## 1
Amino acid sequence: MPVPVAMPASAKTEARSNKVTRTGEMVVGIVGGIFGFLVGVFELFISGLGKVFGVAGAAGVAELSTLTFFASTVGIIAAAVVGMKPRLSGAFMILAAVLGLIGASMFYAIPAILLGVGGLLALIRKERPIETPMPPSPRASSYCMKCGKPWIYVPQYGKWYCETCKIYA
Ligand SMILES: [Zn+2]
């Protein structure tokens, strides 16, 4: 019988690295939020110009910019925590995109696309890819008791096999 092989120490770290990294969603969401802030600043600037020139509705634009800033803040915070709470973060990034579009209409198109893509990826992408179990590595001492040749691992049965003797361990 082959000696049962202990899990290699590296197995734990391998499993951790298999987890989907959320760097993409985080970067896209934060960049989208920063763009959103710029749109808010632009909105304030436009409303300021409007006031100077006495354009009707300029004050309304300033009020809407508050919503734009709020949406962008929500987007950035949601993107920042995407690694911890991907589903919730994704939902809030999409909410931020919608709020931003209400606040700045089509001026928010680019931030909304970035936040929307980040949010959708956070929602859709699987938490973990399907992990293929690694076969236990054979030990130098694991030889067939009949012929002394090393066992061959058969993944579909999860057993060790001797080709010469046609037997399982
Ligand atoms: Zn054998």
## 2
Amino acid sequence: MSNKFSLLMVSIAATVATLTGGTANATENCPIALTFDDGPGPYTNQVVDALAAHGARATFFMVGNRMQTYSGAAQHVVATGNQLGNHSWQHDQLTLKSAQAAADDINRTQASIAAVTGVTPLIMRPPYGETNNAIVAAVGMPEILWSIDTRDWATHNTQSTINSVISNAHCGAIVLMHDIHSSTAAAVWPILDNLQSRGFSMVTVQDLIGTPPTGRYYHQ
Ligand SMILES: [Zn+2]
């Protein structure tokens, strides 16, 4: 990860650790934000139903040109209390575009998400996590990265995805997954069972850190 620009780390995790006794496994009232990128897609409803059955919420960073095809799934995400984020129009790497083109890309996606769901996202996640100061300034939205990368897109393995989350889970974590893979959708129910049994509460990014000012953020 580049250090050419400032990387702001929100310190809520330390606060939560203090409130919960400060030990790694003291997970009572310990919030964690599951995030799902690259949808909506054919497995999004499976993810949403698993969340709803557990009374859990998550954040979905959606791709603009998929909204019409999977409009029902996108609406289901919203109707069940989950948060939406912007993940660009067609998953282009924004740092390969001019700042103006990147801003246009994100704005077009905002309009697409709003047209289908009625919700205009307050946060975005740059594809591949690739961003820079010019993109941040041009886009003008908080850029939400992650603290646990499951690499579900590479393994396409349900058990590997489950293990990645449950072995790395910590208070205040932001977990990166992708709801366009059936292997990930199948992992969500067992992940939720495990985390809830350990006292974690699965919340949206909004509930974890609010809407931070513009800049790059991830969460420990
Ligand atoms: Zn992505």
